[in-house]
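hey so u asked for the seq, here:
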Amino acid sequence: MTVAGALAAGAASAQTLARLNVVAFAGASNLVLWAAQAQGIFARYGLEVALELTPNSRAMASDLYSGKYDLALTSVDNIVAYNEGQGEAQLPGPSDFTAFFGVDDGMLSVMAAADVPDLAGLRGKVVSVDAMTTGFAFVLREVLGQAGIAEQVEWVAVGGGAQRLAALLEGKQAATLLNTPLDLAAEARGFRRLARGTDVVGRYQGIVAAARRGVIAQKRDALVGFTRAFRDSLDWLDANRAEAAAILTARANMPPPVAARAATALLDADRGIFRDLRIDEEGLRTVLRLRSKYAQPAKELTDPSRYIDPSIRAAALG
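ran it, structure tokens below
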């Protein structure tokens, strides 16, 4: 345990744990949260963290806005979309969502049925996204656009990654965009990887931790503790790879060989979860570029600082 962790553990033992309600999608961040819960890492920082998974970005945005959840682990594109009035859910007022640390670059791949040899093979077929105007939909549109087939496929909105994986496995769509470890689950079932998102769009900011600005003001200490615990959980996972794979087997229902591959990918120092929890400004600019190109109502978005609050990460890791 770090010195900060030891001090936090002593403080936690002398006070009631502060509860944070967290919503997330199926993906990389959940391994970190599951490990932090199992290893008592959140408790060391005086926190009780309750995690629930959301079926889609519309429910995530509505529930985060309403206060059902204190924070979300979600694509930064969702944060931008709702702040700019481009989200699919109709919120009662301005969302004022903001990202306070980064998790990954999306770790996105186009996964397709085994009989689809390449991107061109998707012509005339059904491809799925979470929601047409948010999430990673624009990454898939750009990938298919650069392949010249974005207008030659049938688009359907299915929901979050777990829902899209299930629909893909059931043959309801020919392809979708999946993040790790869901891409590996599809690959293990014989589905084909047609492209990696960052190979096409360049650097990209994927998942972030985000909250409403009012929650950040009210629960700053708890969010700083959450950020520290997230980083400490990453350190624990890196030192305990076999246990990391076992968590994925138990919590994500992955066969052990797939779980081992997933743990390796998620904890890869270069391509996996960001060890420094940075929000990649260049990657966020890519998000804004794609949103400026595809979103409605059309807006030219150029200022990454409008969607982030760096103070939580700075206080936690500085």
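Residues 237 and 244 are 6 Å apart (CA to CA). The radius of gyration is 19 Å.
lmk if thats what u needed
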